Amino acid sequence: MRYIFFLFLALGFTACNLEQEIELELPVVDNVTVVECYLQPGEPYNLLLSRTAGYFEPFPTEEAEFIQDLLVTGATVRIIRGEEVIELEEGFFLNPIAQKFFNYGSNEIVPEDYDSDFQLEITTADGQTITAQTRILEPVPIDSVVVQFNGPDTLGRALMYLTDDMTEANFYRNMLHEGSLDSIPDFSFPINDEVVDEGTIVFGTNYSYAVGDTIFHSLFHIESAYYDFLVSLSNAVGSNGNPFAQPGGIISNVEGEDAIGIFTGFSADRVMTIVEE
Predict the structure, then answer these.
(1) For 258, what's the count of Cα atoms within 13 Å in the CB-facing half-sphere?
(2) What is the SS3 assignment for 85?
(3) Any residues with CB less than 8 A from the CB of 263 and at least 6 apart, and which?
(4) What is the distance, to the nearest Å, from the Cα of residue 187 to the centroid of all Cα atoms in its chain?
(5) Which ranges of the chain have pLDDT less than 70?
(6) What is the pLDDT of residue 242?
(7) Residue 31's pLDDT is what?
(8) Cβ(263)–Cβ(210) below 8 Å
(9) Model confidence, pTM
(10) 3-class secondary structure, 63
(11) Which domains, and CATH codes, for the chain?
């Protein structure tokens, strides 16, 4: 990439109408199977099983055709907790709050079990085997939400406080919605408590909210594997389309040849606040 950078500089210092074709040999990357499965107490078991598409592959003109080509069909999907086996059936499953679609699911509800391991077993129609393991972490409560105004007749900001257990490594995902939980979040990001010096963590917003607005703070206690997945996903999206950025690889916790993704459990605490002066 440094060679290309200096070549651009050289071209800029010569004639403006000078053109030169550069042939780049891009590596051929096989399509891989992608797994997304999130276990949250009180929610049904759902899983998305899809495949990647090549960056330069023709983009289908029909949206339904594009989605159908990406979905992996005909797989056997099981989640095992102790002696219990949950079979996930193929279908159409929508979580409006998470704004996610899944193509495998069950009517069974994820239990409030913070002591058991959950095993994932997938066998695709072509014989590929994918496995993973996770646990659901206990919720960390939100201590309080405080709204502050910078002066009269101004917008307010919201400060969310929580107490972190400094004796162990903890990872969180902080999310804020305005108006309703099925809206696009104002922000959503992961945090590692290694950056925290004291036991109290404060998440703040900009001065963006008027009196009468309703905001929802959601605090997810997540595994380190999910934290790494979210950070690597953000880095990959950031480098996409940038010729000077290093390609970002997805950090995955699923095992299987030509398979990536995340199988994780988490718990959440949520506080609704109506902005008042």
Answers:
(1) 12
(2) strand
(3) 35, 37, 118, 120, 132, 133, 134, 253, 254
(4) 12
(5) 1-30, 53-68, 238-248
(6) 56
(7) 81
(8) no
(9) 0.81
(10) helix
(11) 32-138+224-266 (no CATH), 142-222+269-274 (2.60.40)
